[in-house]
Amino acid sequence: MTGTGTRHDRDGAPQPQRFVISFAGFNRPWAVWIAHRLEEHGHRVALQRWDPQSSPGLTDALDDLARAGGKVLVVLSERYFSAGTHTDEEWNAALRTVTASHPDRFAAVCLTDSPLPSAVAALEKTDLWGLDSYEAEYRVLRRLELPTDRIGTESGRRGPRFPNDPPEIWGRVPRRNPRFTGRNDVIGRLRAALTDAPPGASTVTLLGLSGVGKTQVATEYAYRFASEYDVVWWIPAEDRPTLRERLADLAPALGLPLGAGSYGEQIRAVLEALRRGTPYHRWLMVFDGCDHPDDLTDLLPSGAGDVIITSRNREWAARHTSLVEVPLYARPESVTFIRRRAGRLTGDEADQLAEALEDYPLALDQTAGWLADSPIGVGEYLTLLQHRLDSHEAVTLSDDYPLPFPTALAILLNNVRENFPDALALLRLFVFFAPGRVPLRLLREFPADDVPEHLAGIVNDQIRWNAALNKLVQFSVVRLEYSDLSVEEGGGLETVQLHRMVHNIVRENLAEEEAEQLSRSVRQVLAAADPGRPTDSRLWPRYAELIPHLESAGVLTSSNPRIQNFLLHCLRYLTLAGEYRTCLRLAERTDGIWRALLGDDHDQVRELSYHYGGALRMLGHFRRAETLARAVADRLVAERGDRDLETLRATSTYAGVLLSTAKFEEARQLLEHAFETYRELLGEDDSTTLNAQNNVAVALRLLGRYQEAYDIDLDTLRRRERVLRVRHIATLSSGVGCAMGLRLMGRYREALARQEQGLKLHIQVLGANHPQTLRAEHNLGQCLRRSGDIPGAGARLRSVLERSTRVFGAEFPWTLMVASDYATYLREYGDIEEARRISEDVVRGYQSQLGLAHPYSIGTVGNLGLVLRAQGERAEALNLAEQALVGMRGALGDRHPWTLGCALNATGHRNITGRLDDALDLSRETLRDAERVLGPDHPMTLSARIALAADLRAVREDIEASKHEDAGIKALTRTLGPQHVHTVSARRQTRPYWDFEPQP
Fold it and tell me: Which of 103, 376, 619, 694 matches a 20 to 30 Å C-alpha distance to 150?
């Protein structure tokens, strides 16, 4: 079929032409790329997805294309001809009719070498598959009889990627389903929701029943639109450890430094890179199977890319995502799918089967897969299905499943049982791992002594193993996934994926004896895979692989000490990796089980309590943590005395909780006793002794004894540098403690110099986003602020707060601490409204977690009072300042630095509300106590002196006021410098205030 050539204008230049590109949805990337190339050559292009089911017949559908105006370019592939249920004969008749009626209007490009209807020859197709972009564009232009002298021309706008070129990063996306059918309306709504979302908020949740095809839709979308992304990354999201592991795996793919290799560090680096759009701006992240929004919310990326979540949980509607429902198949989709899966069935038979199985995709897939090779006819199968439904012989039903599915699955399993016993045995083993992905490596390492007798032959025979596995794949009972690595690099078959519905139904209908035998075997497999060193971050990927299967295999309920120790290692890993919520959930369940099984006083229960209590404390459940830790400590003291090493561990743990609940003095006594006893029993340079010494410094710092705390921190730092090494994580932590101590003592320049160097070491050793690095960066922000670098301080504090909120959540204790400091910064140098909002959130958070009487609740109420003062709400500000003063006196006494700070603020509030004599009396008292507690040159003491001068001036005591003011300014000039912000403010007679800082 030839044309008359390219049309030209009077000057001989080619005129723009109009083209209609007809394509199957499966081949959209090719259609989009061809359209873009034609548009770059100045032509107008319309895309028309081929859907013959929307027209009365093939001839009418093709005729409609020809009448659209312009030349029709058909993108041919097997999928173009299988979009409906038409035969080759019907296609040949339609093509011959339409090409005869519309000569020179149709052209074609072909993406396959598979046999196509013979009448395709009339379209004079040109082949594109396997070509590079230059040759493909050349052939398209030649077929359309267009000039070829400007191939590769770009107008400046970025177009789609050439379909034969994969995205720069393509991570673990499931294999494309060659039988994917229909769903064009769902994919269209998904695309529209992502495209229409505001910048930075392109997050869509595919919502639907189990087995309805959510994962298949997300997979098909990834392939259809792959050319529009630089990064496509697939993340299994059924459980949080696996989710975090897979998200962290993106770091090296993006070229990000691994630092110390911690998941938290890598995840934060990944999220920041995605937010910034560097090195890739166009990305697609798919979180598959997330039914618990809390597991994912803090890990959702933001930026210019797109996020797809698949879930059964409608709660995602309240989590700032758009919902796209994935319904059951429409009947034409069901019929088309069945006939692709089981080609021997007629259209009527496919319709009957779809009716019986209620158009449920998973049931259709499994049943049609069986019927494709089974001698049983559809009528006989439907009779069997109805008989089981009527007689209730089907396997146990659940409200989660459409009624026919368990029955259809029961029939399928009966067939497997009778004809493929190895496949059934393998399936029953799989269901004692968690639903979702089962790492085949674990089964390949099955301990020889633990293989059940009826499985030994399969596990030890590669041929039988593969045959059984392939039979399960054939019936769509399981799906195989492969590593992204090449075979030479150790890639290949990696996991088996078992659908949750199949998993539950098979497991619920196992005999109790067989279930226990299989469960015990899988527990041994998991324990054998324990790397044994949860403190080694290099082994964390192995632990993340094991965590999802703990509950399914019955690890939590095992009485085997080996299995119990394995579980304790997993909990230790979760704590170190920052997976506090998962750790708490598992520890909470295990605690009740082990107490009933072993008794409250068992060593394993005590060991568990350390992980349980640690998770409680890190998540802000301080009262529960205190109750748990105290019970363990009291029991050990009574049984073993206070010098036993295990007792010291328990009392130190209890003291750590006491610090969180503001029982600082009681905690100090316990920690000092532990330190002294450890030093006597283990030596002063033992790492346990040094940890205890560090804890004493923390307690003293919280008690306001800053000089003593600093001296101990400095000694600990020097010992750790000698015993461990300069770059050891514990040594770096001591460096942060020393810098904090210097800052709290008012030695700002020294603190800044030490913390700047410390942060550089943290970044070199741990990476920029390690939790301890964030702590160092937060302290640097405070040092910068106290040293007068206001812009630098704001940038640091804002960055740390954003990352902490995203990773840990707004209510996390560490996040509240950073938020409090950032709010005080905003009050002085930023947005006062934002400062108030954050301050109110912090107060609510602390009061909810710690109660009204905790110093952190009290101190942040005082900070809120300063915000209200700045907004002109003087009466309410005074009320909050007085509340804070009374509360801090009650909590910590009159002479704690925090109490003195509250008193300093209260004097200012009294002054501006006209209570001049009360302000003066309190100012004299505050200066006197500050000199005794902190010394005459401490910044708070000098602030108290400047404040006293203001109160004296207010009552006309100008001579005494000048004396104090001059002395304060001279001391500020000597200690902080003449241009320091505090010194300058004092010269301007700006009244000083004090910001409460919660401490880690």
Answer: 103
